[in-house]
Protein 1
Amino acid sequence: MKAVVDYLSSIDPVWAAFYATCFTWLVTAAGAALVFLFKSLHRKWLDGMLGFTGGVMIAASFWSLLNPAIEMSPGEGFAKAIPAAVGFAAGALFLFSLDKWLPHLHLNFPEEKKEGVKTNLQGTILLVLAITLHNIPEGLAVGVLFGGAAAGVPEATIGGAVALALGIGLQNFPEGIAVSFPLRRLGLSRKKSFFYGQLSAIVEPIAGVIGAMAVMQMLPILPYALAFAAGAMIYVVVEEVIPETQQDKYTDIATLGFIAGFLVMMMMDVGLGA
């Protein structure tokens, strides 16, 4: 792992962010590829993995994003928390706006409950768009952290950025499954189910590069940018991931998955982020 951190420290941070988010994209593709090996996946495993995804995202939002944003902000008391609070609110509102505008369909929900502007798009496309919505703040978070670390901000480290990319990669594996298997059940071929499954994460490298470039050009926005990504990620967890795990009788498994994901991400961030 040290060799990976050293290598990413030695190259341009935009490229480092690109490589890291390509890794998270490829892990999504690996999860989606299971559709070639199995006919179906039991609902309890899917809910458990989605719970794991939510736990990773919540833990990453605090340890990798919000906490560094607060620590690097100037001032004392309430003033020190203002940049993080503003960025967090802006991130949540940004995803709220996308959620209201972008047509999509949550996993495990009937097609009549699709959200966003009215459209005639098929349920398969709407499902892919919903997962794509998850991935925008994830890629942005990795890119922002790499940009801050490259700029020499003590609270943002390459190790922390690598830990975040690993955590997001871990939770992207079940996200790939969560797209490809439902699409297969809807009648798509294995190839098309895989294609759309991996396609849902292609926005991560794009968002990662944008995040790294933005922070490097405007370093003072770093605490706002970190908190922005955290607000967007937590909005996704509360509005999409958790409700998707509560539609069947396996809510306890989803909850245990959430706890496991939170613990894994917390330990990785503390262990690698120093």
Protein 2
Amino acid sequence: MSELDLVEKIRKRAGKPKGMVVGIGDDCALYRPRHKEDLLFTTDPLIEGVHFVKGTDASRVGERALARSLSDIAAMGGEPRFCLISLTCPNDAKWIDGFYRGLLKLAAKTHTTLAGGDLSHGPAIHCEVMVCGAVPRAKALVRSGAKVGDWIYVSAPLGKPWDSPIEPRLSLGKKLRASASACMDISDGISLDLHRLCKESRVAAELDDVPVYPGATLERALHGGEDYELLWTSPRKSRLGFCVGRIVAGKPGLVRLRGIKVPPQGYDHFGIDIT
């Protein structure tokens, strides 16, 4: 199958580009924003041997590629609008078909339009996903709004296996626009991501407990990463998620669990000491 044939097949499978003035087939996609909304942009790589092992089912790779970026949109209280996909992989039509099948299944479920991208041949699989989302003007959730006294929440137990399906918490993110003071997704372990949130907010955190995924250890729940759950703070108690502690005064970025300092030892792509 030629590249032109492959692009045409992807365009037909993706369907009519909702909300797009111009979609797959031109040099650029063209999107016209709705009135009174702010746009959100995020990008994530997915690399064979780094983010998934060789031989992983192609549809799962495609689904995961999109899900990771959708989790960022959820963390800011947004709704996805469209995505762009750049894929480098061996010349394997069956694998490419499976990749887009998994990706487009999640795209349809989350109302995310595949607006374009690029394809290239290479010895290993490397995917770059860019997602554009939107949020009502001035309503985006950010990391820098946590205040002393706020409660700390997570959306689900942490420490699940790295290859577990990702469920982007888009509906929850939209609900949190009404109550959260700060929010982010947990992709590198709560020990590191809560440290980041506290650094941005110039506060510290005291954890009482961390909900642990069945079969996981507390160590993995704290430092493992690849959870893609939401972490947020709120000035008032909520029935949403799991309350794990409270924001306190202290050295910005400091995280303690039942009085004991928790080092920010989540997944670090470059192994740089940030303490």
Protein 3
Amino acid sequence: MNPFSSVTEELKSTFDKKFYEKAKFIPSATETVELFCAFKDFLYQYPLECTAQKACPASLEQLAARLEKQILNSLCFLCKEKSDCNACHARAHQLTQNFILALPDIQRLLITDITAAYEGDPAAVNPVEPILCYPGITAITLQRMAHFLHKNGVRLIPRIVTEYAHNLTGIDIHPGAEIGSGFFIDHGTGVVIGETCVIGSNVKLYQGVTLGAKSFPLDEHGNPVKGIKRHPNIEDDVIIYAETTVLGNVTIGKGSVLGANKWITHDVPPHSQIS
């Protein structure tokens, strides 16, 4: 008799009861990452050639069918019904259709990000270099796709995508963050952008910048209150240099420049220079 069988069963039973009551509906992290890497290839139109070493990429129709299954799992996992329901099926189908139809708009936004990287970095010799080489472009590409699903009420999948990007690039952008056009993260390592951040257009961040929360209001049970605005607002044309931290629901005014290694917990007027 296996002396560990009872321990194995107890561990599984306890964890299932606490976290995985509807485990069969959990989205696959592996499948989700593969899907969004494939969508990334479609956005940048590479690699579209078939070779002996690499099969042709799946069509958008094939990717959409796979994505719909993962979205359905996410909806069913959080649904109050005990099993999958017609409403979740219908919503998953519509969300998938909307996501695919939104890809051209996402691509147009990303072109402004790539342009900002190319024009803002003298080391970039052509616009393709940021696509292939810059961690900031990889991170914002995945975040913009994840953000679309997040703002439309899909959970789990957007976090899987942005945490994959975090692991890959060292840049942590929550899928809930709202980010305008022409966004450029230079170097990127250690950048953190929180869930309720609102970032305007033509904003540039350097490595180690944190746009985080200052504190967490607690409910009557001592648990953090969720869903409230707690991260900074960065207006258009702001530059924030390396290792600067901005905390709380504060506003950094249009055209401001925050120098390196600063600790900001208050509003900054437009066109300020903090060195």
Protein 4
Amino acid sequence: MNIALRENYLMKNKNLLIVEGNLEKENNNFKTSGIQTHAESLKESLSYYTNELNIDVFNPCSEKTFDNILPNLKKYDGLIWGGSSLNIYNDCIEIRRQISFMKECFKKINKILAICWGMQVAVTAAGGEVKKATNGAHIGIANDIEINENGLKHPLYKAKNKKFNSPAFNFDEVVSLPSGAVHLASNKVNKVQSVHFKSGISDVWGLQYHPEISYHKMITLIKFRKDKLINMRKCFNDELEIQNHINFIEEEIKNSKKSSRMQELKNWLDYLKAA
């Protein structure tokens, strides 16, 4: 049996829940502009490794009730919770619903990969805290993420370079970790780039950056959000600065390999397929 067939065989009976963090309005804007939702991007990246997962997608923001999914949460072998344009400290019903749903997942799903917004929701639900980042933002790329001694021993970073760049898009950061959490990696912008903690029955691997999203999509998102990045976020003075930043990311594309960029996703899938 070749390696690809073996990966599919091992995943064939695994049930995976993907949680979409964006509001339905944002996803509709993505679709109108020809941009994949975060859930769609994640499914595409997962297909790089296997097509045999039984995948369901759920959006706590758009569902009026959790009554249909809560009784079935125990069937999922794992959960991946992806990105969002929301800020968790802005109190609204959609954010409260996501935190509430994460707490339910802690009761019934053993293995969770929480990415960017997903990590912020998981940390908040487990008693940590997220605030607006004080050292700037990541716009399409996070530079010089460095794995610490704890991270070097963790299966999340198996076969990963100690220092690396990654696709990323965030304005907020974890400032307080849940009790018992293990900090795994940092860079100059965000002290917490990755974390491992347990809550309820869940083993949570959290990432602030986006190994599952390509740099090409990040460039598309920058162009899609350029007016907000200039006028509201004040990240750039004008479109020329944005284009220079895009040029910088395009240089990174030339020097990066897809398999290396997505190593954390592969490592979590290896963890998922284990007993």
